[in-house]
Amino acid sequence: MNCLNEALAQFVCVGAYLYVSATFNGFMFHGDTGELRVLAIALAVVPAIALYLVFRLFAGRAASIAAFLAIFLALSFINNRKTALTTDPLVWLDITNFDAYALAFSYASGLEKSLIILAAITILLLVIWGITRRVVRA
């Protein structure tokens, strides 16, 4: 039963990842000739499963799904905002370059800044809750 629950949790993460990718980021499941892009879909799903499994090392199932969804939705929103402003998609350098955070934060409205801070605190609390729950159980 535990294995089935883990598979279901990963399915939820992958499903949400593919839905948001197709809806907001323009990911195409079919090529120009109509064939299903199986390899592209498989490669797109790998980071979603890997991120969920990293969170799963530190937190429970529900906290891992929530943290994954929060980070993925935030990155999708940031990608949409950057694409609208510059016509360039979000790249790894944008995520790892700390100078880009100050610039991106300057474009955010007050509500968006509040949501970003709330999401970061929520993810941190979920991870702490998951770690302390595992320590208490052991």
Radius of gyration: 17 Å
Sheet of most strands:
none
- What structural class do you assign from the helix and strand content? mainly alpha
Q: What pattern of helices and strands is seen along the backbone?
A: HHHHHH
Strand content: under 5%
Task: Kindly report how far apart the N and C termini lie.
Answer: 20 Å
Quaternary structure type: single chain
Unreliable spans are none
Q: In DSSP terms, counting alpha (H) and pi (I) runs of 4 or more, how many helices?
A: 6
Q: Using DSSP, what is the number of strands?
A: 0
Q: Give average pLDDT, whole number.
A: 76
Helix content percent band = over 70%
Task: Give the overall silhouette.
Answer: flat
Give a nutshell description of this structure.
With 138 residues, the chain is mostly helical. The chain is built from 6 helices and no strands.
Please supply descriptive tags for the structure shown above:
mainly alpha
Q: Can you describe this structure?
A:
The two termini are 20 Å apart. The protein is built from 6 helices and no strands. The protein has 138 residues and is mainly alpha-helical.
Write the layout of secondary structure elements.
Blueprint: H1 2-24, H2 38-58, H3 61-86, H4 92-96, H5 98-107, H6 110-137
